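Figure caption, in words: inputs first, then the predicted bound structure.
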Amino acid sequence: MSGEIQIDQARLTSELQTLATFTGAEPVTDGTSVTRIVFSPDDLRARAWLKELATAEGLEVRDDAVGNIFIRWIGTDPDLPAVATGSHTDAIPHAGMYDGTVGVLGGLEAIRALKRTGLRPRRSIELVMLTSEEPTRFGIGCLGSRLISGTLDPVRADAMQDKDEATLATVRTAAGFSGSLASVQLPPNHYHAWLELHIEQGPLLEREGIPLGIVTSIAAPAGYRFTITGFGGHAGALLMPDRKDALCAAAELILSIEKHALATGAIDTVATVGTCDVHPGAVNSVPSRVVLQLDIRDTDPTRRESVMQAIRQDCEDLRHRRKVTITEEMVNADAPTQSSSHIVELLEETCKAQNIPYKKMVSRAYHDSLFIARIAPIAMIFIPCRNGVSHKPDEYASPADTTLGVQVLATVLAKLASE
Ligand code: GLV
Ligand code: MN
Ligand code: MN
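Bound structure (glyoxylic acid present):
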């Protein structure tokens, strides 16, 4: 590298703002919220815009059958496994503008900054925009990285349905992504290393006044769908003793989930019921069927499973007491992952050399890196986010913190690419 790495903070900030304008049709009440659901018109516009930016830089662009976008800066030894960075640009309903996007646009800026130094990397450096890290549309997160790592069966994936019962196969084809999903998988030696930049999504860095986090492990997420079926009917005429109100049973189940997650006493056990679909969903009709989606995570998957067992026992009690049926469907139950000690060392060495205070930390949120870890050594860089807020419109990461994260990302990508 002949010159200093200089991040173009103004350009990165403006690109993050532009990306935030590709947002869904829901009413925006606060002026800042971002909704970008996979394969929606806004997602497609964002993808086209990102590809334009990459092409303008002279980078090689390709996408695969599920719409993962690969943006490659070809190295001087192009046959060597590349060094990769990336994240996602989809956003849950009423989200903010930094989750995932910082890793994608920051990754692009890292490549541009390295190019400006005159570097000719030995290994290619690849930026990857991964499809549907968020589970909003098909109920499972990290769709692109699961398929890349062979974690999700391609046939099962294609059959997954959104709330309008459109399958992934139909939706991706309509979006212009055809071909077999089996072709998305990459072999274990495809990447030399993977490094993802992301906002922390928690309060620790800001609270401790530390500008950078080095992620050493990622907690294990799981998702379950509970369907509770009772006996509904007319809200006036169906007598109270004759009801098997599915929503009342669901309410008890939600509280039991909270109770058992709290009962482990571990800060790393978290369980959330984030959706509740009530059938028929009319104010004057006793609910006959409810579908709940549970998101449960822990750094210790055995402890996570013991919480699930306690929840299942409470389901058994509810079945008898409330005379409802309850079915449980496992959507995903993933293992935690550890970062590569080699990449963590490179990150620490870089922070020390540049006098950047850092903290080694666990990621309780999941990220595509959790799945890329199955085919490559990974690590992540966290930057602080205001009040620890994420998945909400007021999510915010300062330009200075973002720039610092990109600076460290670029430095370590260059080191990895020279190996
Ligand atoms: C990712 O968006 C997560 O829910 O952890
Ligand atoms: Mn997210
Ligand atoms: Mn994210």
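The mean pLDDT is 96.
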